[in-house]
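Q: Can someone sanity-check these two? First one:
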Amino acid sequence: MTIHKYIYLLFVCLLLAACANIGSPEGGPRDYTPPRILKTSPEPNAVNFTGDKVEILFDEIVNIRDQQKNVVVSPVQKEQPAIKSLGKKIVVEFREDLLPNTTYTIDFSDAIEDNNESNRIGSYAFSFATGDVIDTLQVSGIVLRAKDLEPMQHVLVGIHSNLDDTTFTAQPFERIGKTNDKGEFTVRGLKPGRYHIFALNDMDGDYKMVRTEDYAFIDEIIVPTVQDYSSQDTTFTFDHRVDTIVTASHIDYLPNDIFLPMFNEDVKTLYLRKIERQARNKIFVQFGAPTELPQLTILQPQNYRPDWYRLERNETNDSIFYWITDSTLIKCDSIMAQLQYLRPDSLGNLVTATDTVRLNARTSTSELKAAAEKKKEREGWKKDLEKLEQRRDKLVAEGKDATDEEEDIKALREKLVEKKERLKFDLFKTGTLDVTDSIGFTFSTPIENIVQDKVKVEIMQPDSTWLRINSPLVQVSETNVKRYFIDKPLQPEANYRVTIDSLAITTVYGITNDSTGFEFKVKSLDEYGDILLHVNSTDSAFVELLNEQDKPIRTLTVSNGTVHFENLLPGNYYARLIKDANMNGKWDPGNYEHHLQPEEVYYFPDARKLRVRKNWTSDETWNIYEAPINLQKPEPIVRNKPEQKKGLLDKKTKKKSSEEEEDEFNSSGFGNDAYSGNKYRDYQDSKSGRNTPRGGKSISR
């Protein structure tokens, strides 16, 4: 072969290679289709199953998302089965013998997703039976946190056919389901019968309730049933004429609107959590629950004043500070003390306990570091002072001017003089105040005495002169010995001046204040707006006005069906009503032992925002029953939000009609994605004259 032929062949090869690598092929359109089931072993709803393994084959590689949170096997297993995703297959291997004549359900919720785009299969459950009959009844509903209607995500919902009250605390659930990220649940594979239903945040994994766990219950007996109904779909011609009417048959599994309000009894064990000497002058005692005030007695040293401390505590006495005021005790590196307090015995009765403790003075690392730095700084000043004095003496001996040196020496000597400690405090608020604010101070240590004549409060007059008003500093509460305020409402648009003369305030350690003064300006009423709510609740109730973090900022009792929030800054607000059954001014949880439900909570609907404008009253009528329970809480302040499914926002599909949309919880009485507790349904029924439960729900009362 000649050289020309070699060159020609090389050229052709290079040309073909270039053509083959013009560009990478595109990935094609995005996949929005969830995995499709090709085959299962055994078949869905198979009977007389005798194996120990379930296999589900898909048309693509799949994953199981958050298996521990989402997947549940019912009835409960003592030894949890192994659930694995193996390429295009999901395998469930049972690690214990299956019960005879029992329906088993593996509820994957929406945990199964494809490997590439995370498209999920919605609410997939696989059932089979070990006998010749498979149970297909199911009940569904929603679990919300009772005090604020937050969706309770991934908590257990279980049933018992044993209707005895002790079953919930003594026996594991017979069948279970789990809530999804909206708080919705379905318990599948039920036999015909009568059941009690519960929700449980099962912290110890025993499928039984203990009082320290979050739980929910209803006293109604649940009777699962089915209901047939039909719907009609209409197709039209291009000129909008009716073409075909198709009648389809459907089945509702009832009840499908069970509302379980979850709560925690907030049971606290009364015990001594800690007693420690946090500083030389401060002893801290903490209990695990509210209690009576304990008695603290000093054993060593023996020479101390009877009034050796000043007490600071909270209202429930579970956090107590003993501020040591006796200098003899403060100087002691170690104090031996005896604490007498209440604690429960083995029968739960409160008895007096006595502990003897040694309280050693502790110096924190930061305090040691600060002391070392201060010592080092003072040593530096002393060296500098010595050098300056030598230089000054030399200049004077030489007959030169030493004025600058004398000034520096004076400044250093002032630094080396130990300054007397002065009282430290913080203002409640500075500068411009709202009409609802107070002028007040938080001191660093308890106060022994205030000379009220030396605390001067003045208000500016129209002629710009200051008028003194009688407004003494008073303690905020009996238990809080460090916070004081001027107990007088502030006038709108007023200017205030507070002057505190030196030595006006003295702490329990004899520390006094320097002379100081502050000026405040109060906003005009034109800067505020009001909210007036007319509520259709005749029961004892109060309304909490909430900020955008769902935190109460004002609370008012409903009076004659109205609440009036005045002097609010412009902005968006939310409102929560609590039916105060025991009239104690706070929300109370339920109690299973006494069959007591948590106090009912309602939210003002988000569709009608409580928007406050300047110099304007927002007058609203509030029907607390107008929205179903799962739609009561405004979406902006919901914290337990459903996870946003990947690709949901950019997928453009035609919305299905109400008949076409999937309804995984088979709701019929309330429409898709809506649930109601009895109090909501009964109110609506009484208005419409219905005597039967909406949606055909079958509940024995």
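And here is the second, same format, sequence then tokens:
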Amino acid sequence: MGDIKNHPILDIPERKAINFSFDGKILTGYEGMVISSALFLNNIKTFGHHVKDRSPQGIFCANGQCSQCNVIANRIPVKACMTPLIRDMIIESCNGLPELPAEDFLVDIGDSEIIDIEILVIGAGPAGLSATKILGEHNLNMILIDDKDRLGGKLVLQTHKFFGSQEDVYAGKRGIDIARILGESIESLPNVQVWLNSVCIAVFSDGFVGILKNNKEYILVKPKRLLIATGAREKMLIFPGNTLPGVYGAGAFQTLVNRDLVKAAEKVFIIGGGNVGLIAGYHAIQAGIEVVGLIEAMSQCGGYKVHEDKLRRLGVPIYTNHTIVSANGEKKVESITIGQLDKKGKILSGTEKSFNCDTILIAVGLNPVDEFFRKAKEFNMKVWVAGDAQEIAEASAAIFTGRIEALKILQEKGIPFREKMDDLHRFAKLMKAKPPQPLKADFHFKEEGIYPVFYCTQEIPCNPCTSVCDQGQIKTVDDLITKLPYFKGEKDCLGCGKCIAVCPGLAVVLHDYRKQKDYPLVTFPLELPETKLEKGHKIIVVSNEKELGEYEIHRARILPEFPKTQLITIKLPSEIAKQAVAIKLVSTSYHEPIEKYKKSVTEDDTIVCRCERVTVGEIRKWIQSGVKDFNELKALTKAGMGSCGAKTCTHLINQIFREEGIPTENITPGTKRPLFIEVPMGIFAGIRNKKESV
């Protein structure tokens, strides 16, 4: 634990250390860092205990959605993941609500400010920023709000390079850089107001949108047109131990590690083989955190094959057809038990095995944060929706949908534009598509000259390598973005290495037979060391199946255009060169399972509603008795009545309904709260200041 001092991709800024206290103990954090990250920095993962059963509480989403991280800061209950640390802040565990003051105080109550605006955009991620850029460039007066302290949304958590095309979605650049580019594109637009640290609380039937601006001032905004780009929230799973501190979403992990530079774990285990889980594993390794393993319930990972290959080549065991049996530990995660699934999706008895770890990352999908859109539609407001709030997909797709919805707004207003909507829709569809099956690779090596070899075998939308070749010799079949690249060879390769450095999948290797046919020079990409490697340093060469041996570096260089990717050249025997696909710094050391863990909690005792500590057994009992109304379940069990407003448990309870044979169309959905985000009553009432009691 502690802060990250060195990182191969992220620059470590100067940060101002400040003192604060937690439960009476003086600790040190960094000014402006959110409370949850400051506590993790000090190896504190338990932020309080639930009033119902004294169970330990920690973070889950780190995105302001679930309220699991509540603490008492300067006598006020706050979400630790959304509240900046200030000097000498007094923080206490949240074991229930704090005591009310002994006396009442008179206060001034002011009227909320009301603002009329042409367009309000909620969410400053890739979709919201892309839309704002287009609308702002057409001189429309607008406000863009986001609940974080910087622009970019989830892009600010992404240290890997993006897929797609360079022209359309900045392919080959890292998410952190795309966030900066998109942010800078709107900074100079004089008609665009940007409100950071500003939370949308509710959409009202009279067309007003309630916003907590800068976490201090309640403002009513009345937009003529509203664009929702609020992203997504992470799904949870039902398993024993699922609420232990140390079990949290992959996005929370990336927030701690990549945004706040906190080494949040020593050993992690990942649940889910989609792009989110695979990428989180790679981010963990970049931060010096060991990935003990990754499991996927399906027969193969659902994410991009190149992301999976990166983990496998670095020695991460990936168990397909496996699921989590339990998270184990008394007060925090100490180990995980996994088991193999049969063809019916049931755990095969006797296949359970346990591994030591201190963190379990849940990466099993996302749910759209679309409640503002649904309310606005219900109230007949002029509203559009983009990004994950519209449909869960990659961030590159969100850039497209943001543009598309912005153009729809222009269209509705009768403002002409040059972009072709059909082309944008087509590209958005490509970026949203699930990755197809990998193709069988058949590589041919010509033992002369110099040329790149492409180890990408999946037809996904990606072609930055074709854009950077100065000779124009890298093409895709029929020039389609989804086809695999190849080297034409009509002109000599310059050996510049740009195609290697730009590749998001680290899947391009350069072969150079010009000097020695039997010992070609082979150049690989490397992103993991914090410092540039030198000639003579030994490094391990790997194929897709095994380590091929340790070899000395012949040359190491970094291209100015790609400062965080090293190009490592090694002289290899010809037969080894034909097998080599990547390099790594250390040899793989696999973890042996520990003694089988005996479950002490049954599935019926497993928590489904985190806020109110309602179990699967309670929900199942009432469903079996005939309850099909979510509101009735609320009244009977309190499920969905907690701080998060049923954001975390709704899809889990719907899953139990399905398991009990109740079709979705027969379930009466729960009534959504008028306010989607908690807000202190004082702010909501417009209280200006306290006065002495009289």
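A (reply): Looked at the second one. The chain has 17 helices and 37 strands. Residues 144 and 588 are 47 Å apart (CA to CA).
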